Amino acid sequence: MNAEEKKAYRIKMFTDLYSGIIPDRFPVSDGVGLEYLIQYAGKDLMTTQYSYTKELLMEVYEKGMELLRGDTFGLAFARNPIAMMFLQTKVDVMSKSGFVQHPETSGFEPEEYDEFNKAPYDFIVEKIMPRMNAGYDTDPASRSLAFAKYMHAVMDQGKLFAEVSQTLIERGGYFSAPPGTVGIQPVPYDYLADFCRGFSKLPLDTKRYPEKVEAAMEALMPYSIWRGRTPATSILGNNMIMTHMGTFLNKKDFERFYWPTFHKLCHICAERGQAMSIFCEDDWTRYIDHLQDLPQGTRLHMEYGDPQLFKDKLGKKMVLGGFYPLTLLKNGTKEQCIDKAKELIDILAPGGNFNWRFDKGALSVNDINPANYVAVMDYVLENSKYENAGELVTTAKKEDSIQKFSHLYPDFTSKYIVSFDEFKQKYPPVDERVEPLMRAAYDKYTNMVTPFITVY
């Protein structure tokens, strides 16, 4: 097949998968990150992250094609050390090895919960951002300059990555979701732990100030809903959740603090026709029955757990992937690696609702043996065909699985998110003929800048 034919085939394959139809074969996703590919191409990881160019990225990915076999392509999520430099951030810190890490940080104290809960977004902008980013902890003029430099650094890298991705997608006929249909979905407990209170402090808060933490979860919901609202929806798009804290909580705390808002966000997203793609970090076996309550068609990327148990309990309702231990590709023989792939395919592929994934992505060049990786990917692709393509995975209707929660929450508002109608009260059009032109320009640039206000 040529590139256009490959792309059409892959779009059909993913459309079937996400529609609850058994595809011609199950989709296959690669498991190596950009950091790995930089090193595999013989580049210095640290300096390369400060000097991306189209030519350099093309060289990295052309070398990476020796390994890459998957159906999807998009330049992997990459930290931006130049943007981090202007923020002088404490949230993401580069080590001497060149890897960016997210250390334990805390942006507010327990006695500030009441203030946070009144207007979380405003509190984040005014208090947490300067505390976590020294570039903002300064006078207004210097902060404005730091913000402008940061925003341009992020946009420059984003534009560059998008151009390279599009070139390689067209060349290889890869699947990619329609523009504007993929978003990041913050969930209150993880968000509060990651960027506000800290990994170790929030669990202590649930013991010492349970009502305040519970109130914070609900206070964050309007922002979380707004932040996850993509410009467009498509069966081929999704909102991505990277879970962190859920499995580290006991069942009582999980059910009180973590799950209620998580569960409602997934259903609110489904109400507007958008699916969730959830990386279930660690082992979610204890909470497998909770996962059953998510909307039909939710995409679950599992790290650990018994694949047979997850297939038996969730296989008809959810799209499953993961479970393959990346460490085996480093330490196992070629035969052991292929045997594991065969075991997982035999368990997870029958009946559809399966997307091949590794349990996590390789970051360091030492994480995997490239020969084992290629052998596994080739085996998976050769054994990905279905004999019963076109059959329904289930006769259950997706709409029957969606619970309605969106009406419970007000629209998100903040004094830092100003509509044109509010703005024009201070700066009115000189003539009614220019009002629609002003509105279009205002909305364009406001929407361009708004995602950068809080960084996270």
**How would you state the average pLDDT, rounded?**
96
Strand order of the largest sheet: 3-4-5-6-7
Query: SS-based structural class?
Result: alpha/beta
What is the helix/strand order? HHHHHEEHHHEHHHHEHEHEHEHHHHH
Q: Helix segment count?
A: 20
List unreliable stretches of 5+ residues: none
Specify the biggest β-sheet: 5 strands, parallel
Number of strands: 7
Helix content: 40-55%
Which outline best applies? globular
Report the end-to-end length measured between terminal Cα atoms: 41 Å
The amount of beta strand, in percent, is 5-15%
Rg from Cα: 23 Å
Give structural notes.
The protein is of the alpha/beta class and 456 residues long. It has a domain at 418-456. 48% of the residues lie in helices and 7% in strands. It has helices at 3-18, 34-40, 45-48, 54-64, 81-87, 113-118, 120-132, 140-172, 188-196, 201-208, 210-219, 221-227, 251-271, 288-291, 307-314, 326-331, 334-348, 370-382, 420-426, 435-449, and strands spanning 93-94, 100-101, 182-184, 238-242, 276-283, 299-304, 319-322. A five-stranded parallel beta sheet has the order 3-4-5-6-7, covered by helices on one side. Helix 13 (251-271) links the parallel strand 4 and strand 5. The mean pLDDT is 96.
